[in-house]
Design brief:
Layout lengths: L1 E3 L15 E10 L13 E3 L11 E3 L2 E3 L11 E11 L5 H8 L3 H4 L5 E4 L7 H9 L7 E3 L4 E9 L3 E2 L3 E2 L1 H7 L9 E5 L14 H10 L3 E3 L6 H10 E6 L5 H6 L3
Parallel strand pairs: 6-7, 6-9, 7-8, 12-13, 12-14
Antiparallel strand pairs: 1-5, 2-3, 2-9, 4-5, 10-11
């Protein structure tokens, strides 16, 4: 179901505190397809089987939160206090924005982290989480609905398209940045065809290189090196689609 968005102001995120609420005997329902639940239950239900609003997947000022199953009963119980992390995406961009959106809450916690997902973390996502100081041993990925003695549910610190709370920003700020001299263009030329094809990008990158820009293919670099480029550059540019190319070329 869709619920109205209302966690605070995107323009001034420091004017409120992000909610972090504990629920005794809360049940977590893993979602196989976190983007389109198609009527399946997903997220956290309280002890009375009511959906916990802030456990939903939020984007574009809506909350996607699955209804409880018809039988309403969890099939497992873990007598443990845990913290809810959200949903796992294998898309790199959505992983950064949505899978990590509750990092602000669980990064400093010592509790085990519960993922409402029927899918594993990938090798690169494990590396990224370790880079953010979240060790492998803390992750608990559910295969079935599970009730916990106590579960902490944090609100997301990032919501597509424009909600970015300062506590989430601070949690992601693993590397100390400095304003350097590099001008960096992020290219997707390694992808062939389809969504990632950008007409004219080869000509654009050649012209940028002549102007002293560094052309970077992020997915071919280790995570620490990717972060280093972002942390120390003066200018970072990229293209969303081919409509960007003519405007960019006109400014070179």
């Amino acid at each position: 179901m869709y619920l109205p968005y209302g966690l605070g102001s995107a323009s001034d995120p420091a004017d409120y505190e992000l909610p972090l609420t504990a629920y005794r005997n809360g049940t977590v329902y893993p979602a196989d397809d976190y983007q389109i639940p198609r009527g399946q239950p997903m997220g956290v239900l309280d002890q009375d089987a009511r959906p916990v609003r802030i456990s939903g997947l939020e984007r574009y000022r809506n909350i996607l939160l699955g209804e409880p199953a018809a039988n309403g009963e969890p099939v497992a119980f873990i007598d443990e206090e845990v913290i809810f992390a959200g949903y796992i995406s294998h898309h790199y961009g959505h992983f950064l924005l949505e899978t990590l959106s509750r990092l602000w809450a669980y990064k400093e916690s010592e509790l085990r982290i519960v993922w409402a997902a029927g899918r594993n973390l990938t090798e690169w996502s494990h590396k990224l989480l370790r880079f953010l100081s979240v060790p492998h041993k803390r992750h608990l990925i559910l295969r079935q609905p599970t009730r916990f003695a106590k579960i902490w549910v944090p609100a997301p610190g990032y919501i597509i398209p424009d909600h970015f709370h300062y506590r989430q920003k601070d949690a992601l700020a693993t590397v100390q940045g400095r304003l350097g001299e590099d001008k960096i263009y992020l290219t997707r030329q390694s992808f062939t065809g389809g969504f990632y094809h950008i007409d004219g990008e080869a000509e654009l990158t050649a012209r940028l290189r002549d102007k002293g820009w560094k052309i970077v293919t992020p997915e071919g670099l280790p995570i620490a090196e990717q972060v280093g480029f972002f942390a120390n550059a003066r200018v970072i540019a990229g293209s969303k689609d081919q409509r960007f190319i003519p405007a960019c070329c006109a400014r070179i």
